[in-house]
Specification:
alpha+beta, 8-stranded antiparallel β-barrel, 7 helices, 13 strands, about 25% helix
């Protein structure tokens, strides 16, 4: 006996230790989880039908933009200018805005406002000039998707893009002014936003499930979620001043997808897909504390007659005549600015979505 010669207590302890050791492998085998990713009890066939892909998604956009439109009316009307001229010409000479400080002297506001009033009335007021449009830039991000084979033959599959860094998108000015020339916003970055584009694709895969190359065709749906939308300094400078906030409506889009899956090993594959989705959204821009000043870009996008009349006032009366005339208007209303104004613009985006990814089966 291997325990011969040992005291009784030592023999008892050794036998107990051997008993515990003999039981440990069996207990470990019983407690070991069957799968570390999926909950116990999941059907192995269900797990085998799932796949995951990690890749790079690129968004190439063509824009069809409507013109920006005023919702709350023009910033300045002909009646406003008449009111400002009357008030301004009544100011005492001690006031910095008094016409007595102009080269032309008393009556300057009436003469200057009168020179532009007819054209302002014809235009319906000074608001958003016609021809103000926008176009979107391209964007890209990393994304993770999870898919599931719907049929035993691995022909139909649904794939959902679950995780992705937000796309950073930019909008640029576009369009022409009254003179047919590119407007003051054309080509300038006027707005930035972040975009979450949850995407699901239902596709039919051609060929045998064990084929090395399997092309597929399907349909995809995305819901574009815009957030953290901001206007740029270029836009603020163009309108002359104020604080502008912006928002974009979320949008749903559906379109065709084509792709191919190339098997590298039993578990790993490479995937390339191209899809087309069209989205329609509406931008809302709200400007508070509005100011229009001499030299503001927006003034150059009105009619040639109005630009000539404005130039005449600044050449004949004061180089800052536009600024002072509208400051007088603010004071005549008892305000420190021209007010709050809302503009809207409808835009359609035709998006080509390219995805290159690496995938694995579960």
């Amino acid at each position: 006996m291997i325990f011969s010669g040992l005291p009784f207590k030592a023999k008892t302890a050794a036998l107990a230790a051997l008993t515990v050791l003999a039981c440990l492998p069996a207990a470990h085998a019983q407690n070991q989880p069957k799968n570390s990713i999926f909950p116990e009890g999941w059907d192995s066939n269900m797990r085998s039908r799932m796949f995951m892909r990690v890749g790079y998604v690129s968004l190439h956009t063509r824009t069809s933009s409507g013109e920006a439109r005023d919702v709350t009316g023009p910033v300045v009307t002909a009646a406003d200018l008449t009111q400002a001229a009357t008030y301004g010409d009544s100011l005492p000479s001690t006031d910095p805005l008094s016409p007595d400080n102009f080269d032309q002297g008393p009556g300057s506001y009436a003469l200057g406002a009168g020179a532009i009033n007819n054209e302002v009335r014809r235009l319906g007021g000074l608001g958003t000039p016609r021809g103000i449009k926008a176009r979107a830039g391209n964007a890209s991000t990393m994304a993770v998707s999870v898919g599931y084979w719907l049929s035993d033959e691995y022909t139909w599959a649904v794939e959902a893009y679950l995780l992705a860094a937000p796309l950073r998108v930019s909008a640029y000015g576009d369009g022409v002014n009254y003179s047919g020339q590119p407007n003051g916003l054309n080509g300038k970055k006027i707005l930035t936003s972040k975009l979450l584009p949850p995407l699901a694709v239902l596709a039919y895969y051609f060929g045998d499930k064990d084929s090395m190359i399997r092309p597929y065709a399907g349909v995809g749906a995305t819901y574009a979620i815009f957030f953290d939308t901001k206007v740029t300094n270029a836009f603020t400078d163009y309108i002359g001043g104020g604080n502008t906030t912006a928002s974009l409506k979320n949008a749903l889009g559906v379109g065709p997808f084509l792709g191919a899956k190339a098997q590298v090993t039993d578990d790993w594959h490479v995937n390339l897909s191209v899809g087309y989705v069209r989205l329609r959204t509406e931008a809302t821009l709200t400007t508070s504390g509005t100011h229009v000043v001499t030299g503001a870009g927006v003034l150059n996008d009105y009619s040639a007659l109005l630009k000539t009349a404005i130039a005449r006032g600044e050449n004949n009366f004061d180089t800052q005549f536009t600024t002072k005339l509208l400051q007088v208007l603010e004071r005549s209303r008892g305000n420190s600015d021209l007010g709050t104004f809302v503009r809207k613009q409808n835009t359609a985006f035709s998006n080509t979505i390219v995805n290159l990814s690496v995938g694995t089966s579960f």
